[in-house]
Amino acid sequence: MKTTRLLLLLCLVLASAFANEKPTDKKIVVSVRSLFAVNEGSRSSTVDALVRLMKEDPQIEVRQWGGISLPSAGDSNLLMSLAGKTSPDIGIALFHTIRNDIKQNFLYPLNEWIGDDLNGDGEVSGDEVKWKEWEKYKPLWRAVASQNGKIYGIPVPSVNIQGMVFRIDLVKEAGLDPNKPPKDWDEFYEWCKALTMPNKVVKGAVNSYGQRALCLPTGGYMFLPWIYTAGGEPFIQYRKSPKTGKEYGFSIVEEKFITPEGEDLSHEPSDWRANWDTEEGRAALSFWYKLRWGTFEKDGEQIKGVVLPTSISRQHYFHDFLGTGEVAMMAATIDDLAQIAKGAQLDPSLLSWFPYPAAPGPKGRQCVQIFQHYCGMYANVKDRPKEERDKVWKALVACIEGKMPAETWRNVCSAAWRVSCRQTGCANMASKSISRTCPK
């Protein structure tokens, strides 16, 4: 009897407590891919921004999207979810695939919040812009995410910078000075020969190639810096004069588009074309061929190639080879060596980096490669009511409002600045765009 009275009293207390509360609005779930990794053990500024958003707008419930998990499936799970209309609402559009995402109708345009191309010039600018933050981004970044007046992505607040990462201990073992990394292709090849030891027994190795100097990732975008180091432009954007019909080629980083005759083509659409079949492109390809199949003599033995064969590299995560010591170098992002060390199961103090080395001759230039990715909405958002789409937009804005920690920015800026100062005339995108935003 006492237990019954106690339970009755508890129910009355709870009923009284909730009597004064207003009915909770129906939750609107917004699923986020990649950016809302709440289970990884560390809280990013993006996660913090999304948590704040949920406190400010209790109707929004942000969830980390999982989808079907397949080993080594890449984006297969995302593609299947798009086909099955179960895709996340928000995710990352990579700098080298966003145009294909747009072409395949994977992304939902953001114009209903940013603004519409009212004058038909292919851009959303000036008085057309409703979300004024849009005009703060570099014209190049805006152009990459736009097509035919539609906007499909907003630059994320952080960038990745890629260079050549190497194992300090293996470099020292080969008799090289880690404080004097190679500056040109010739010096780089000498490093590669010294670091290639086919007969070395590597503990924990997954193949029988001994130690090789490096592995070359097979992604096409990984080849672009080598064309640049040869003095070339991997891509050219062409714009046609409406007056004469003549086409003019501009650099990938051009923003003003003024012809030699003084005509302003800034409002004409760009036709982007690969520019690999050039003297510089062929030189870069020849150097890659030398790295893979070139022969040299070492300790009385003929050795073929200084890189780990592609067929082997595809079967494993590249960081594994760096960790075991099967390779001494790899192209990787240099803004967070600690993360690379974690993936390779190494002490971060064992890693360092240098810029892509310059080709011989007056055209050669060192460089790093910058990756500016985007945050976008996936196409299935179009099926949600306007009220829900607006909530998805609020979550997207929270995703891109996150900021990289100041110390990380200083490290990245310092890295890019060292590269730009190391060789006169090295006008690469990294040093240009980052030095202007580096915190003091």
Describe what you observe in this structure.
This protein folds into three domains: 28-159 and 373-403, D-Maltodextrin-Binding Protein, domain 2, CATH 3.40.190.10; 160-226 and 279-370, D-Maltodextrin-Binding Protein, domain 2 (3-Layer(aba) Sandwich); 235-274, no CATH class. The protein is built from 16 helices and 18 strands. The protein has helices at residues 2-19, 45-56, 76-83, 98-103, 111-114, 139-144, 168-173, 185-195, 224-229, 279-293, 310-313, 318-324, 337-344, 386-401, 406-422, 429-435; strands at 28-32, 60-64, 90-93, 107-108, 146-147, 150-151, 154-155, 160-167, 212-215, 235-240, 247-250, 271-274, 295-298, 301-304, 327-333, 351-354, 369-371, 374-378. It starts with a helix and ends in a 5-residue tail after the last helix.
Q: Uncertain regions: pLDDT < 50 for 5+ in a row?
A: 1-23, 37-42, 69-73, 404-440
Report the helical percentage. 25-40%
CATH-level-4 superfamily name of the largest domain: Periplasmic binding protein-like II
Number of helices: 16
CATH class of the largest domain: Alpha Beta
- Give the termini separation: 71 Å
